[in-house]
Amino acid sequence: MKNLICGLALLVAATAPATARGTTAGSDSNSATPIHFGTSHEITSSVLGETRTVNVWLPPEHDTAEMPYTVLYLIDGGVEQDFPHIAGLAQLGVISWQYEPLIVVGIETTERIHELTPAPEDARYRTQFDTSGGAEAFRAYIAQDVIPFIEATYRVGERRAVIGESLAGLFIVDTLLEQPDLFDDYISVSPSLWWDDQAVAGRAAERLAAAGHSDTRVYLTMGDEGGTMQAGLDTLLAALDAVEGAPEYRYVDRRETETHSTIYHGAALDALRWLYPYPPYDYGATPWYLIEGGQPDQAANEGNE
Questions:
Q1: Which CA distances in Å does 227 have to 125, 181, 195, 253, 295?
Q2: 67-97 burial, b for 16+ CB within 10 Å, e for fewer?
Q3: What is the pLDDT of residues 230-287, one digit of tens each?
Q4: Domains with residue ranges and CATH for the chain
Q5: Which of 154, 124, 118 is nearest to 136 (CA)?
Q6: What is the tens place of the pLDDT at every residue in 202-218?
Q7: What is the 3-class SS of the chain, one letter each residue?
Q8: Hey, how many other C-beta atoms are within 10 angstroms of the C-beta on 204?
Q9: What is the pLDDT of residues 124-183, one digit of tens each?
C-alpha cells in the first residue's frame, strides 16, 4: 500500500502542469503576502554603545488577555539564528496545550566568540581566541538594556527563562554561576564547557555554594560530543549533586541519539515540557470512528451510561 501511495504521488507530480517557482497555477504572481512571525526591535545599548536587534514572538492572546507570561530569553536569537525554530516551539505550545504560553525574546549575537565567552585565564585560549572574553559585558547588556525594555513593553510574569546551545549554552552556565538571580530557569543545550580548559565548570562548586538557588531550575543535556565537552559537563553535574542548596536540575544524556548539530530542537521541546507543563488535554469520550466497528451514536450513548 505504501508503495502504491508513493507511486501515485510521483505520478501526480510528474503530470501536474508546470508553474513558476513561488506561484500557483491560475494565480496572480503579484498577490503574495509576506508572513510576519514576530517583531524586531532596535535597542540602543547603553552598555555596548551601539544599536542591537532583539526579536519578539508573542502568544496570540497577548494583547487581549489579562494573564502575564513567562519570558523565554533566547541567546543567538537573530532571525538567521535560532529565533524561528524556538519561537515555533512556543507557537506549538499554544496550539497543542502541552505547556504554558511563553513570550520569546531573541537576543541576536553578532560576534559569538566575543559575546558568549568569559575572559580566558589559559594563555592558549587568549592567543587562539584573541577577541574572546566579552560575556560579562553582554550579560550587562541583557540585564540593563534588554530586560527592562521587554518588561516595560510587554505583559510579563514573574519568571524569566534563558535558553541557548553550544557557546550560548556556555554563556548560560556562566550566567547561572556568576549572576544566578538574572533568570529563574536555565536551559543549556550542549554547552561548550571545553572553554578555557573547563574553567567555568571548575568553579561551579564554589559559585553554587556561595549563592542561594531556592527557586532556580536548570535543564542540561549533551549529545555525542565527548572529550572536554562532556568532561566539563560531568564536573558541573557533580557540583550540582554535591552542593547543598544547589538548583533543582534535570540532565538528559543524549550521547546515543544526538550530535552537536541535531540536538537542539528536540531538547528545547523536552525542556519546555519539563519546566512549564500543562495537564494532559481532556478530549472527552472516544469518537465512534476510533472504535473498531463503531457507530455514529456509540460515543454519545457510552458517555450517558
A1: 17, 31, 12, 15, 59
A2: eebbbbbbbbbbeebbbbebbbbbbebeeee
A3: 999 999 999 999 999 999 999 999 999 999 999 999 999 999 999 999 998 888 999 9
A4: 36-280 (3.40.50.1820)
A5: 118
A6: 999 999 999 888 899 99
A7: CHHHHHHHHHHHHHHCCCCCCCCCCCCCCCCCCCCCCCEEEEEECCCCCCEEEEEEECCCCCCCCCCCEEEEEEECCCCCCCHHHHHHHHHHHHHHCCECCEEEEEECCCCHHHHCCCCCCCHHHHHHCCCCCCHHHHHHHHHHHHHHHHHHHCCEEEEEEEEEECHHHHHHHHHHHHCHHHCCEEEEECCCCCHHHHHHHHCHHHHHHHCCCCCCEEEEEECCCCHHHHHHHHHHHHHHHHCCCCCEEEEEECCCCCCCCCCHHHHHHHHHHHHCECCCCCCCCCCHHHCCCCCCCHHHHHHCC
A8: 25
A9: 999 999 999 999 999 999 999 999 999 999 999 999 999 999 999 999 999 999 999 999
- Does pTM surpass 0.85? yes
